[in-house]
């Protein structure tokens, strides 16, 4: 039996949308992440990090993200507003045969369509990789805002997975999630 070699991909370090510049996240962003959204319990409610994380925790995450980018297995972009380039969130894409998408946005920028704009740009980028056939993401079933982002971005709710994932800010028991996805043939840029 032969082990399959991981695919190495080259993703753009910057993506532009009408209101945003998504740029490769860097360790130097840690303090902005820490101050802007990482300690906000409302932002952290439905994600996998706790709002009591330290600046070092964020630096460690960004170092891992940088390593994953260099290996071609994932891409993490800092979401910045134009023209100021103020960091307001992150979008990441973990790449295998399918692409798994995640996102977070500072509360001060909620309900403006910015995350949907960023997600659409990242999905388009994913489908520029010839071997990526599907982009998917999950959200806890009570996270209506993230579900709406994915729907507005063109993703389709594919199903509900019971007791799928522990969300540390909601308790210790695995919780149900909705899985959203879009395949290349259905994607409209």
The helix content, as a percent range, equals: 25-40%
What would you give as the CATH superfamily of the domain at 14-133? Answer: Gcn5-related N-acetyltransferase (GNAT)
User: Spatial order of the strands in the main sheet?
Assistant: 1-2-3-4-5-6-8-7
- What percent of residues are in strands? 25-35%
Number of helices, counting only DSSP H or I runs of 4 residues or more? 5
The ordered string of helix (H) and strand (E) elements is: EEHHHEEEHEHEE
Would you identify the CATH architecture of the domain at 14-133? 3-Layer(aba) Sandwich
The helix/strand class is: alpha+beta
> Cα-atom Rg, whole angstroms?
16 Å
Main sheet record:
8 strands, mixed
Uncertain spans: 1-6
Q: How many extended strands?
A: 8
Give the overall pLDDT as a whole number.
93
The CATH top-level class label of the domain at 14-133: Alpha Beta
**C-alpha termini separation:** 40 Å
The CATH topology assignment of the domain at 14-133 is Aminopeptidase
Write the topology of this structure:
Layout: E1 14-16, E2 20-24, H1 30-38, H2 41-44, H3 55-71, E3 74-81, E4 86-95, E5 99-105, H4 114-127, E6 134-140, H5 144-152, E7 156-165, E8 175-183
Parallel strand pairs: 5-6
Antiparallel strand pairs: 1-2, 2-3, 3-4, 4-5, 6-8, 7-8
Helix pairs in contact: 1-3
């Amino acid at each position: 039996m032969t082990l399959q070699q991981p695919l190495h991909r080259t993703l753009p370090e910057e993506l532009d949308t009408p209101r945003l510049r998504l740029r490769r996240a860097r360790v130097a962003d840690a303090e902005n992440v820490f101050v802007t959204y990482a300690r906000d319990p409302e932002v952290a409610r439905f994600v996998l990090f706790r709002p009591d994380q330290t600046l070092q925790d964020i630096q460690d995450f960004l170092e891992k993200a940088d390593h994953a980018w260099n290996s071609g297995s994932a891409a993490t972009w800092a979401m910045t507003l134009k023209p100021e380039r103020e960091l307001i969130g992150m979008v990441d894409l973990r790449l295998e045969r399918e692409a798994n998408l995640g996102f977070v946005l500072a509360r001060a920028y909620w309900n403006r369509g910015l995350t949907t704009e960023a997600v659409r740009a990242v999905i388009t980028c994913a489908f520029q990789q010839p071997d990526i056939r599907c982009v998917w993401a999950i959200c806890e079933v009570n996270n209506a805002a993230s579900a709406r982002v994915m729907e507005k971005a063109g993703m389709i709710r594919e199903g509900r997975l019971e007791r799928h994932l522990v969300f540390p800010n909601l308790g210790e028991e695995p919780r149900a999630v909705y899985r959203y996805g879009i395949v290349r043939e259905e994607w409209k840029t």
